[in-house]
Amino acid sequence: MTSIGTIEKPATSTVRKLAPRYRVLLHNDDFNSMEYVVESLVKTVPSLSVPQAVDIMMQAHNAGVALVITCALEHAEFYCESLCAKGLTSTIEPDE
Length: 96
Fold this sequence. Notes:
The protein is an alpha+beta fold. 40% of the residues lie in helices and 22% in strands. The chain has 3 helices and 3 strands; from the N terminus they run E-H-H-E-H-E.
């Protein structure tokens, strides 16, 4: 008499690691007008409203640096480069 066994697959679980996030920072400068900075932020980062851009500009003005957005590296590089192309000072750093 032969017995037929079932073959069990080992349980596999897929663990998705979230892509590392990066902070786009805006640094204060003494060259650009506040209105220009707000306009540049809104044009560069579509998810920002004018009041949010004003808050970011004021934070940079008062503290020297402000967080613009936290996002994936490619987006962060794009936003940073776009802000720099408009004459603003921007950097990115890993979000911890």
